[in-house]
Amino acid sequence: MSDKILVTGASGQLGALVVDSLLAKVPAERVVAMVRRAEAAAPLEAKGVEVRLASYGDAEALARALSGISRVLLISSSEVGNDRAAQHKSVIDAAKD
Predict the structure, then answer these.
(1) Are 40 and 15 in contact (CB under 8 A)?
(2) What's the predicted TM-score (pTM) here?
(3) 3-state class of 81 per DSSP?
(4) Residue 68 half-sphere exposure, CB side, CA atoms within 13 Å?
(5) For residues 29 and 37, what is the distance between their CA atoms, to the nearest angstrom?
(6) For site-directed labelling of 6, which of 14, 61, 82, 88 has its Cα 20 to 30 A away?
(7) Is 53 helix (H, G, I), strand (E, B) or coil?
């Protein structure tokens, strides 16, 4: 297993702060940012971070995003009305596989 760290919600307010904090401590090659929209990738890629596209409701995309990851920082979605517990379970299940 690699020593890569994936941050979900990396293009959001908290996620972006977490990515910046990680970059102050570890090489960019270890940081992987998960975002839902391709247009959110550019600012993260400009920092040397690998970006993977996935959403909490897409099990196959989550499995691809979490492939080769050793640690995950799961940041909850801020969207109103989402079933956060189900979203969290989806990420945790994908991380176990």
Answers:
(1) no
(2) 0.89
(3) coil
(4) 9
(5) 21
(6) 82
(7) strand
